[in-house]
Design brief:
The protein is an all-alpha fold and 105 residues long. Helices cover 83% and strands 0% of the residues. The protein has one domain (2-104). The protein has helices at residues 2-22, 29-49, 55-78, 84-104. The radius of gyration is 14 Å and the shape is flat.
Amino acid sequence: MAWICLIFAGVLEVVWAFSMKQSEGMTKLGPTVVTLVMLMASFALLSFSMKSLPLGTAYTIWTGIGAVGAFAVGIIFLGEPASLMRVVAAVLIVSGLVMMKLASA
């Protein structure tokens, strides 16, 4: 259950990061509210998962999902560049996440 909560927390991190971008510096009410609600939910799920997962593992997985997810959302929805260097960086992050999961098993 902790891993499911952690993955969902990471997905919510992507949602709040995207909505923060859409809020234009927290000047648009709708995206600002979405940002704050998703942020609180993400932190709550992360906190729950940390009850049984090691701090380093949980935090690394959470931030990794957020980083790679935000990278993908930026490319897909915001037209951000997908240069070779950025893609390699994302692959390295995912590799680190897999290694962290394997190390905590």
